Amino acid sequence: MHRSLALLVAFLLLLFPEFADAASGAPPQPEVNWTNIYIILGVLVVAMVLFFTEVIPIAVTSILVPVALSTFGVISVQEAWISFGDTSILTIVGLFMLGEASFATGFAQTVARWVILKAGKSEARLLAAAVAMICALSAFLNNAGVTAITLPMILSIARNAHMSPSRLLLPTAYAASFGGCISLVGQAPSMVANGILAKMAPEYGTFAFFDFAWYGLPLSLLAVVLFGLFPRFLVPPARQIADGDADMEKEEELVVDKKKMWISALVYLFVIIAMASNLVPLTSAAMLGAMICVLTGCLSLKRAMDGIDWPTVWLFAGMLSMSFAIDDSGAGKIIADFVVAHVSDPYALFGVLLLACGVLTNLMSNTACTAIMVPLVIPIAIGAGLSPLPFVMGIAMNAAACFMTPIATPSNALVLKPGGYTWGDYARYGLPWQIIAYLLSILIIPTVWPFQP
């Protein structure tokens, strides 16, 4: 507990620099601009409140961040807006369009329907098959899209198997988060964290396409096994579906052009291989794949544009400006120095930061949580003489481990009403997975990416 308080005090000390200097016995550092630090802290706090309450759209909040920072002179206009043309942004845009082609051609729906129907009517087999299928799809496609596209099918299968939808929907929403941890493109937090790492600590490199699978694959396999063996303890009880939700069981008729379906599948496979092998640069591979899908008619240009999750794009681009501000003002160094002075053990530091992330990600968008936490943990790790890689990976994975509220991720929100769930259901049935995800992070991530650079 005292270590958690130490992190909180680090932020409060930004308001009282004289006290911090006196406590350390060191003279004030001349390169630190305290006026800018006050502004950054204020902007960060306001942004966090707006991300949490969503009184205005998240995309608007994230765009107002560089507006405020540049208007108050904390960073230059160029630093404020250069991120919107960053290669990481273009990679995300290309991958969103590529994933949309899988939905537009019916490839994702075909795979989902085949896997679920093969499971039969046994609740345990059906639950394990549904979780496995969504984990696999979510490793390569937008999590919310996977949940939305499989929701009518799962409702229909539940009815045919004489099961309540509440026995299937929440586990499959969680499965979208599990599977999203398997690859770089599986979830927005991974892409956002990788992009910030490339900007703030380029000398340490970035994560490869399947590096995330060191954590995501064990988590997904464990989920399939545990849901199949212990549904009584891990799955909400049977609930009656509301009459108003019955229409969701009617699957949208999709005329599948098998030629285009297989073209989109092969293009996606090519992009994955190109990214994993560095055959083609990441951004070029994503954009090339998306344009091939448009040129071959797998999806129209309009649908390609509509398939881009623009709020995520704006969030990433806008919050990158915060990383510039934290670096330029010296705020990152101050926070890092204070935290390191109070939490010196690498595992303790790692555990406290991930615990803070696990709490925060359930109270706001997991992407927003990543965009706020990663620029803070990188200078903390470097200031302690440690590699930032395990810390960035830990934040990305624990930001994705958001199971205890319906607002943490779109997949959680999508199943709230159809499953007849309450917020208490998310807290009760999400807590075990929150703990499992946290413990796996502590066990796996520092082993694969050591703390010592």
In percent, how much strand structure appears in the residues?
Answer: under 5%
Q: Report the biggest beta sheet as strand number plus sense, adding barrel if it closes.
A: none
Q: What general outline do the C-alpha atoms trace? A: globular
**Helix/strand structural class:** mainly alpha
Low-confidence residue ranges? 1-30, 243-252
Mean pLDDT: 80
The number of E-state strands comes to 0
Oligomer: single chain
Q: N-to-C terminal Cα separation, in Å? A: 28 Å
Q: Enumerate how many helices there are, as a single number.
A: 23
Radius of gyration: 22 Å
Order of helices and strands: HHHHHHHHHHHHHHHHHHHHHHH
Kindly give the count of domains.
1
> Percent range for helical residues?
55-70%
What would you say this structure looks like, in words?
This protein has one domain (2-448). It is built from 23 helices and no strands. It has helices spanning 2-12, 17-24, 34-53, 58-71, 77-81, 87-104, 107-118, 123-138, 143-160, 169-180, 188-200, 213-229, 231-234, 258-277, 282-295, 301-306, 310-329, 331-342, 346-361, 366-383, 389-400, 410-414, 423-448. Helix 3 packs antiparallel against helix 4 (58-71) and helix 11 (188-200) runs parallel beside helix 20 (366-383). The longest helix is centred in the C-terminal third of the chain and has 26 residues, at 423-448. The chain is globular, with a radius of gyration of 22 Å. Mean pLDDT is 80; it is low at 1-30 and 243-252.
Would you kindly provide a brief summary of this structure?
The chain is mainly alpha-helical. The chain is built from 23 helices and no strands. It has one domain (2-448).
